[in-house]
C-alpha cells in the first residue's frame, strides 16, 4: 500500500462534515454498531446495516463491496448489486442507505500529503446566493470580511435556508436535514420538539441578524431573506 488513501465525510453521524478517515487495513467493514458488534467504521443511523459494506485492498487498489445491506451501497449514485463490488477511483462518491451516509474516496501520493489540508479547505468553500460563501469543513459562513461560525446542526439549518433563499422551507424539511439520525424509517419525520427547532432557529437568527433575516410562516416553516 504505497498510497495514502482515505475517506472524507460529507454526511454521516457521529462524524462531522470534513472529517478524514484513513484507510490503513486491507479489509475495512463499514456498518452500524451493535451490542456484540463494532465495525471498523461505524455510523449512527438505523438505515445502515450492522455489516453494510467492506473496503477491500487487493491488486494495488481499493474495492468496495456491498455486504447484502438492506438499503444499499452506492458508488457515484449507482447502486451495487447485493454482495457486488467494484474498484474505487480517486474522488468517487460512496453512499450508504441512499444518501444518508455520504463519503468521498481519495488517493493521495505521499509527497502530496503536506498540501492536502489547504487544498481541501480551498475546495470546500462554496459560493452561495446573496454574495455569501459557505465553508462546510469549518462550518462557517463568510460575508465580505466577516466570518460567522456555527455548530454542526446550526450550519445544516443555515445552509439549507441559504440554498433555498427566498423560498419556503417547511419545518419537516429542516427536521429531515438537521436531525436525520432520529428517523426510524425512510421518509419518516424525525422526532424533534417544537422547542428544539425554535431554539435552533433562534441561535441561527442571532448569529446572522446583521446580514440575514429568517421569516417565520406560522406553524409551517421559514423563508430566508438577505438584508440590504
UniProtKB/TrEMBL annotation:
The protein's name in its UniProt record: FOG: FHA domain
Residue ranges flagged as DNA-binding region: 124-226
Residue span, OmpR/PhoB-type domain: 124-226
One Pfam family linked to the record: FHA
Keyword list, A-Z: DNA-binding, Transcription, Transcription regulation
GO molecular function: DNA binding
Domain FHA: 28-80
Keyword DNA-binding assigned: yes
GO biological process: phosphorelay signal transduction system; regulation of DNA-templated transcription
Domain of life of the native organism: Bacteria
Organism (species): Paenibacillus uliginis N3/975
